Amino acid sequence: MKERNFGYVFIVCASVIIILAGIKSASEIVVPFLLSLFIAIILSPFYNYFNKKGLPNALSLTLVMSIFVIFLLLVAKLIGSSVQEFSSNIYIYEQQLSSSFDKLFEIFTSMGFDLPKSELLSIIDPKQIMQLSSGIVQGIGSMFTNGFVILLSVIFMLLESEHFTQRIAFASGDRGMKENIQEIVKKIKRYMVLKALISLFTALVIYVALLLIGTDYAFLWAVLAFMLNFIPNIGSIIAAIPVVLLTLVQLGSLSAAIVSLLYIVINVVIGSVIEPKVMGKDLGLSTLVVFLSLIFWGWLLGIVGMLLSIPLTMMAKIVFDSNRETKFIAVLLGSADNLVEKK
């Protein structure tokens, strides 16, 4: 019996490794599909709303997709020139950042601190830092390189959304399958819609604040904050790096400190106070699992995997919880609050 169990576990582990290797090698196909899936989940409440008002499916779909495409075109037009201008000026920003670091070392030296300048500059190289900032900005734009394919996929997914669960339940012959899929879709839909609204509010606050401070490309940084707010724990930190550096070379250390404080306050107030109250305990994931899922999905699917790490892990947890043999994995993924509630 033990040998049979060992063989079964070995086969399962080997199968998982093969599947993950296949997903990673086919990431160019998987990533647009996942983006389409979660965009369709966010847009589905609007599509369902128009349907409930008595509009035909074709008209509802046309309205939703028209609004979505117009929104994307406006955003692309507003940030396109900013991304290009920021990237073309990256060499100037490198030089300005180097001079800012030189002034900082001079201040510390005048105060009596003997800092190892060459060693510190090898760790915090201004050139590498600005290239990292440019990579962050360009990485967000590269997500939508397959925009036409994504839009077509979203259209077909919305059209099939009403009958998808019934088809899977009928094909599998399992009555409980429909309930499991509906639970997955319900939880992910709630998470994605609420997260999108919270991220939109975060972006609005950052946009207004940066306009008042005077940092260039305020709308670009607001869009960046909106996108990276979907990444748990470190998303707001990544979004803050290019903004703080640009403010430092543009407006000086005092303004950069104000911008840093702004991002810290937003992260604490929205991330630690508002978001948990709005989201509640529906995630049911431990803090460690949230962080590890960020690393895992980021390694597997790149920045899109990081953006979608929470809904993908939630989906996996619900699937594991629906099967007796894999229920222990769902328990391991869950938070301590879930164990208390079950007791």
TrEMBL record:
Coiled coil: none annotated. It comes from the Bacteria. It is found in: Membrane. Belongs to the autoinducer-2 exporter (AI-2E) (TC 2.A.86) family. InterPro entries: AI-2E-like. The chain crosses the membrane at residues 7-23, 29-47, 59-79, 136-159, 192-213, 219-249, 256-274, 286-308. One of its GO terms (cellular component) is membrane. It holds the Pfam family AI-2E_transport. GO terms for biological process: transmembrane transport. The lineage of its organism: Bacteria, Pseudomonadati, Campylobacterota, Epsilonproteobacteria, Campylobacterales. It comes from Sulfurimonas hongkongensis. This is Transporter.
